[in-house]
Design a protein that fits this description.
Length: 138
């Protein structure tokens, strides 16, 4: 599935939810459904700076595709990670760099996240893009 299709699936899911209480619960549920992060990734070297919560992030590149792993100690942040992983992990670096994360605004996250969570989300997107960009030179 391409990035645009994955993002549209998320938008469609959130469109079915009536209010932000339901949307937050869905987001938290998505985070809980993520596979637990391997403890070998939970190192200071993999800690993502710019997030209020503890977030560990690792990118791998194989067979022309980016594979991202991330995890957080905070439920909503873990849900945000799940959203980003669904869209960006398993995609080609060039496609990642060409895709703007407008789906986050379409589901209303820009209006309903605290400033610190917005900063953390921006840090995660920046890390995803940086890792993709590093692989385009390979």
């Amino acid at each position: 599935m391409g990035l645009a299709d994955a993002a549209q699936d998320i938008v469609d899911e959130f469109d079915f939810l009536d209010d932000w209480e339901e949307r937050y619960q869905h987001l938290i549920g998505m985070g809980r459904a993520l596979a637990p992060l391997d403890t070998s990734i939970m190192t200071d070297a993999n800690r993502l700076r710019g997030c209020q919560s503890v977030v560990h992030f690792k990118a791998d590149y194989s067979d022309g595709l980016m594979h991202y792993q991330a995890g957080s100690d905070a439920a909503i942040v873990q849900g945000l990670i799940a959203l980003l992983m669904r869209v960006y992990s398993g995609q080609r670096p060039d496609d990642i760099l060409a895709f703007q994360p407008q789906f986050l605004q379409q589901i209303g996250l820009d209006e309903h996240l605290s400033p610190t969570r917005k900063n953390g989300l921006a840090s995660m997107i920046t890390a995803i893009m940086a890792e993709a960009k590093a692989r385009t030179a390979i």
